[in-house]
Amino acid sequence: MSAEELNKEINRRRTFAIISHPDAGKTTLTEKLLLYGGAIHLAGSVKSRKTQRHAVSDWMEIEKQRGISVTSSVLQFDYNGYRINILDTPGHQDFSEDTYRTLMAVDSAVMIIDVAKGVEAQTKKLFKVCRQRGIPIFTFVNKLDRFGKSPIDLMEEIEQVLGIRAYPMNWPIGIDGNYQGVYNRQKNQVELFSEDGTHGQNVIASEVGSVEDPVFAERIGKENHQALCEDIELLDMAGEQFDDEKVQHGELTPMFFGSAMTNFGVQNFLEEYLRLAPPPAARESSDGIIDPQDEKFSAFIFKIQANMNPAHRDRLSFMRICSGKFTRGMSVYHDRTGKMIKLAQPQQFLAQDRTIIDEAYPGDIVGLFDPGIFGMGDTLCSQGHKFHFPDFPVFPPEQFARVQAKDTMKRKQFVKGITELTQEGAVQLFQQAGAGTESYIIGTVGSLQFEVLEYRLKNEYGVDLLMQMQPYEVARWMENGKEKITPSSLRGADRGMFVYDIKERPVLLVSNEWALGWITDNNPDIKFYPVPPDK
Ligand code: GDP
C-alpha cells in the first residue's frame, strides 16, 4: 500500500467517545448517528417507548436491567466517505476507570448536555479527563423538544463550570419548549424541523432555506424571526470568534442544539462534526512520537472483556490502531511478553453483529480473540520497530469486600471467574496474608462494581458469591528498597489488613487516612504508595 493510500484511509477516520451524565441522551444519540449512517434502519427510541426495543449499543443484560451502560461498546459505520468509530462510555460514576481507558483511545469527544439540566456532575468529571488529554470536545445540547435553560445561559454555564468557551454552530429558532428549527451559522440558513409522526424512528429531511426568505419568516412567525435576527447579530458581534486552532486543542467547544429523540439537528451535527473533528493523531511512546502515517503497525489494548456475547463464550481484547496498516493474520510484537503474536481472528462490531475483518487502519478499534495473553494498556507493534506506549494510570481502590463461592464445589469456576474479571480491569484482586485460597479480597473504586461482579459471576460462571464488605477505605502498596515487607516486619500490621496483590506485592488496607498516619509514622523506613509503585 502506498503512503498516499494509507494517508487517505487515516484522514477519513473519526474515532470518538460520547460523554454525558446518565440520561442526557447518549444512547439515543448514538443510535441516531447509526440511523443517519445507514447502519440501522429503524431506531428503537430507546427506553422511551413501550416496545422494549433496546439500543443497539446496549450489550449486556445488566445494562438492560439497570438502564445503565456497564461496558463501553464500540461501533463502526460509514457516512459520506468517513469511517466512524464510536466508543460508548459508561455514564455511571462507578466506572471511571473503564471510562478513563476508553478516553485514552479516542481522538475527540462529544459531550451531551441535557437542555434542562445543564452541566451535571458526571459530565464535569468526564470533561476533565478529555481536557487533560487536550482532545477536541464538541457539545450537543439535547432534548430541545422540551423546556429548558436558555441557549445563552447554557453557554455561560459551560464557560463558568467547565472553563471552556463555546461557539454555537447553530441556534434554536422559536420559543423555549416549542422550537421550530435551528439557524445554521456556517451556511447562514434556516433549517425547519418536520415531524413524521414516528418520534424519530426514521431519517427525516428538514426544510432548508435562507434566513432572509420571506416564506421562512412567515413560517416561523414575525416575532420569532425578529428575535432570531437579533440573536444572530448579537452572536456575531459579541460572541467568540470561530477558531479552528482552539477547537483542535480543546480550548473552544463547537456547540450544537438538537434533540436526539426527534432527530432534530442530528444530521447537521453529524456533518459538521465530521468536518471539524480531527483524524487519528500522533501519539507519544518510549521511542518518541509515533505518527499514524508511519508505515509500521502499532496499537494498544484499552479494553478487555470476557464473555462478551453469551453465544460465544470467549474473551475479547480491544486494540486501538495507532499507526500503519493492519491485516488479518499478521504477526505483531507483544511488548510486555516479548513474543510475536499472530492476530488471527480480528473482529469489528455493530452491536451484536460481529464481522471478521481483513484490514484496518489507524483510528480503528479491532476486537481480538484473546486466550489470556493481553493485559490492559499492552503495546502491539511491528518487529522492525519495538517500543511501548505509556501505561494507563491505575486508580486507588477505595472499597473492599471479602468474596468466596457460596458452594465450595464451585471453587474452580469461582477462581476462573474472579481471575478473568480482574484481568479485564473490572476489579482489583488481593489475597490476605496467611489466608487460604477459598476467599479473596476485592478492591473497587465504586460500589456498583461489586454488584456487577456478583451478577457476572452468577450469569457467566454459574457461581453464587458470598460477599462481606470490609471496613477499609485506603490501600497502600509498600516498599523499603530492600527485602519484601511481611506482616511481621511492618509495625502495626494488625491495625489494618495485610494483603498481596496479583503480582504478590505487599499492600496494607486501613480504615482511613488517620490510621494510615499512625502506620507511616511508625515505619519510617517504608514507602507507601496509593497505586502500585511501578506504575
Ligand atoms: P443515556 O443514559 O445518556 O444513554 O440516555 P438515553 O439515551 O437512554 O436517554 C435517557 C432518556 O431521555 C430516555 O428516556 C430517552 O428517550 C430520553 N431522551 C433522549 N433524547 C431525548 C430528546 O431529544 N428529547 C426528549 N424529550 N427525550 C430524550
UniProtKB/TrEMBL annotation:
Main subcellular localisation: cytoplasm
GO aspect biological process, one term: regulation of translational termination
Domain Tr-type G: 11-281
Annotated residues for binding of GTP: 20-27, 88-92, 142-145
Entry's localization field: Cytoplasm
GO cellular component terms attached to this protein's record: cytosol
Keyword Lyase appears in the UniProt entry: no
Gene3D superfamilies per UniProt: P-loop containing nucleotide triphosphate hydrolases, Peptide chain release factor 3, domain III, Translation factors
PROSITE patterns in the cross-refs: G_TR_1, G_TR_2
Molecular functions (GO terms): GTP binding; GTPase activity; translation release factor activity, codon nonspecific; translation release factor activity, codon specific
Superkingdom field: Bacteria
Keywords: Cytoplasm, GTP-binding, Nucleotide-binding, Protein biosynthesis
SUPFAM superfamilies (UniProt xref): EF-G C-terminal domain-like, P-loop containing nucleoside triphosphate hydrolases, Translation proteins
Matches recorded under HAMAP family: Rel_fac_3 (MF_00072)
Protein family (similarity comment): Belongs to the TRAFAC class translation factor GTPase superfamily. Classic translation factor GTPase family. PrfC subfamily.
Function: Increases the formation of ribosomal termination complexes and stimulates activities of RF-1 and RF-2. It binds guanine nucleotides and has strong preference for UGA stop codons. It may interact directly with the ribosome. The stimulation of RF-1 and RF-2 is significantly reduced by GTP and GDP, but not by GMP.
PANTHER family the record matches: PEPTIDE CHAIN RELEASE FACTOR RF3
NCBIfam families attached to this UniProt entry: prfC, PRK00741.1, small_GTP
Name of the protein: Peptide chain release factor 3
